[in-house]
Protein 1
Amino acid sequence: MSKPEVLIKAVTVQGLSYGEVARRYGVSKTLVHRLHHRWLEEGDAAFQRRSSRPHSSPTRTSAAIQERVLALRDQLTADGLDAGCDTIHTHLAGEGHTIGKATVWRILKRADRITPQPQKRPRSSYLRFAADRPNQMWQSDFTHWTLTTGVGVEIIGWLDDHSRYLLHLTAHRRVSGRTVTDTFTAAADEHGYPASTLTDNGMVYTTRYAGTATGTGNPNAFETLLALYGIAQKNGLPYKPTTQGKIERLWQTLKKHLHAHPAATVEELQAVLDGFRDYYNTRRPHRAISRRTPAFAYELIPKAFPTAPDDPNLWRVRYDRVDPGGKVSLRYANRMLHLGVGRPHAGTDIIVLIHNTEATVIDPDGTVLSEHRIDPERTYQPATKNG
């Protein structure tokens, strides 16, 4: 016997009043009154339990919005992009839809689109570091990728540490020291020079470990370029890629996208990279910067900048021979320069002593043949003084 039937029988058979039934069974007098009058209208059908669910739900998410949530999930996943609740919520807001993140999650959950990941650490356990201002520090790294033809290529990127703004992203047959300086300069010409850089210890970035275990290699072109502009160079510890964690994490996001957009040539791959960079910077919300876009965070506050030093502390010795035209070739800041020593010294073995932008050419006996003030923007470097 159901609860409604007990209460109704107590009134109709026992003859108890509404108040007496309410006190005996610990219910409200209003409930007893409502059940009795329902029995008078419906008969024994009133004994059945009624659902407490409302007849209508004005705040229920419309079917169209639910379908859009699932469509966005499928579209972003197919494109190899992040398709979590926060990302979907941001896209919906951009389309003018008002919906909570929790509602998005419930819709995905009901449709079995949520993949549990219990192995993840809680985000509160992470210790985060980020530069205080845009251009305070740039991270750089390069990664390998294979075209659909089986040809291997390399992708280099420059990322602003503060805003996660992807400053530069290009594909190359092989990343060399020239690639590093060219891409760095291209990014700096567009966005301004940074106060510091953070990379691993690859030879294209630093020669600090070249030669011996203590590192006796001369500064490479990138190191020379940074010293001239007063840009602090930071390098992670060997075999500790987490130091450059932001750009390492970028490769994971990028490769997921590249798997969904196969390319057969470097040119096709570059088109995919350009599209990804635009989406990553201007449309994709980033959890680490309060779900804002990197482009918004990058322009929000004034940028940091380097201060050119009076003494970059560059020292170098080069051994060479004067060519028939009276010149000596010198690679400086990744550019091939030519020091004009003079035709009378053609064929002479020489030593070039370099300190910052000053170069002195001497012969093995110590006689000064010429002195030069190096201008990295000019290919030919005339002598400021001849011996």
Note: The chain has a mean pLDDT of 86.
Protein 2
Amino acid sequence: MAAVGSGRGPDAEASVEAVFREERGRLLAALVSRFGDLDLAEEVTSEAIEAALRHWPVDGVPSKPGAWLLTTARRRAVDRLRRDQVLAARIAALQVEADRADPAPPADIDGDLPDERLQLFFTCAHPALSAEDRTALTLRCLADLTTPEVARAFLVSPATMAKRIVRAKRRIRANRIPFRVPGPDELPQRLPGVLQVLYSIFTEGYAASGGPRLQRLDVAEEAIRLTRVLHRLLPDEREVAGLLALMLLVHARRGARTAPGGGLVLLDDQDRSEWDHPMIEEGTALVLVALTGGPPGAYGVQAAIAALHDEAADVASTDWPQIVALYDVLLGIAPSPIVMLNRAVAIAMRDGPEAGLALLDDLGDHPLLRSHHPYPAARAELLRRLGRRREAADAYRRALDLVGTEPEREHLRQRLGEAER
């Protein structure tokens, strides 16, 4: 066994942790592909990692750690199946190796761990599962978050999240959802579901739905990591590049979005020198990939809008006419009340608050926007700019009734106090 550092020092522990983070999703996907059982794959993946934690700090990280983990996990899985008489026929059908699992760790191993995470992406995001179940299962299986960590990300109890994950797994079994990448005829219909799951995870990290913090950076960064994986697996899919670009261009502002005490800092007031400019450069390059070679997709257009914000020296010099034009394109591709809300705000920046407010008032009866705090908050801001303070105060109160995070709530309280004075 070739070793990458040996002993129990911090370097060895860091190496082991880095390997687990990179290899766990690939290992789980390979085991699900071989045995067709997500629960079994999760159990033997955990056992293989536990074995590595015992042996690697002493013997060193093997030259092919993924293959080491796969061999160990596969032996454990075969041993479990053999002990289960009910599954004897299944073992024969799988034609797995005949030797019993060796309790000792595998020695030198040839070959690499196959990367079958793409199949796992599509299994976790299958349309037979509910939107909540798809997101929870993706975080649990591909992001390597524990059930309590997934529960914290979405502000539910661990027991509730455990039931959600179990329900998703049962539905996969009951519906016999295949572990495979959709064919070329299915991919255009199935890929948007995968992208929506990843975008939902990122949105919860970038703009938390509730709690004491405005952002959950660990959740946002995990969404970016998973989207990078998907982009490596599907390099020719322009909407995957568009989604990754959008995440990077928005996440690049993370350091300037909150004050030292955790308070909200609006885009107008952010110190743009604190933005992550290498991340902006990477995202901008991906925008070109997303918008080249065919009709634009929704994520590519949103990424282009984010790039215009990131490239501007300040709010006043932002290319608002181009942003409005891009929102017009986006309305043609993926119309939604949220897009119309954002377009109205962009028009207010281009043509003045009265023009934007008229559009917002036309949207006031939409049920989604009535429960979406950015809508009354946007109206309040435009009313404040027009000097209509009493109406602005009413809109701020409405937004306060709907807002989720404490930093946003405090910001709205301050604005309300100013309007009342």
Note: The longest helix spans residues 10-35.
